[in-house]
Amino acid sequence: MTAAVIWLVVALVLIGLEVATLAFVALYPALGGLLAGVAALLGASIGVQFAVFAVVSVATLLLTRKPLRRMMRNTPLVASNADIVLGKRAVVIVAVEEGPGQRGQVRVGTEHWSARSEDERPIAEGMTVEVVRIDGVALVVRPVG
Question: Could you count the other beta carbons within 10 Å of the beta carbon of residue 117?
C-alpha cells in the first residue's frame, strides 16, 4: 500500500469516529490525514507527511474548535412540549403490572406513552388515569376516581 492510501484510510476511520461521536475531536486529525495523503501523492518524504499531519491537525483544532463550540452554545434549545401532558387524563391501553419499575402503556389524546404506576400498584387496561409527572421517557400515573 502506498503512503497516500494509508493516509486516506486513517482519515476515513477518523471521519467515521467523528460521525459516531460528534465531539469535534477526530475531525482535525482526519483533515491532517487527508492533507498528509496529498503530500504523499506529491512525493513528500514520510517525515514531511507526518509534519503536515501534525501541523494541520493542531492548527485546525486551535483555529476552529473554540468558534465552533461558541456557535453551538449560542444555538437556542428547542423546548419540548412533553410537559403539556402533566395533569391530563389518559386511558391505559396496556395494563401496568404490580411492582417496582413495572410499565404499561397509556394514550393521552392521540399519543401513546410508556407509563408506570405512582404507587407501584397494578392498573388495568381501559382504566382512566391522571398524569402525575414525567420520569425519563415514562409517565407516572395514578388512577382517577
Answer: 23
Q: Given the C-alpha cell 503536515, which residue does it identify?
A: 52
Helix boundaries (H) for 1-145: 3-21, 27-41, 46-73
45-to-7, 41, 117, 134 alpha-carbon distances in Å:
13, 10, 68, 60
Q: Which three three-digit cell numbers place residue 104?
A: 404499561
Query: Which 3 state secondary structure label does DSSP give 87?
Result: coil
Kind of pairing between the strands at 138-143 and 111-117: parallel
Look at the alpha carbons of 113, 117, 120, 122 in this order and tell me if their dihedral is positive or negative: negative
Give the per-residue pLDDT at 78. 66
Over residues 40-44, the mean pLDDT reads 94
Distance CA 85, CA 89 (A): 8
**For the CA atoms of 106, 107, 108, 109, what is the dihedral angle to 10 degrees?**
-170
- State the pLDDT at residue 137: 85
Q: How far apart are CA 20 and CA 116, in angstroms?
A: 33
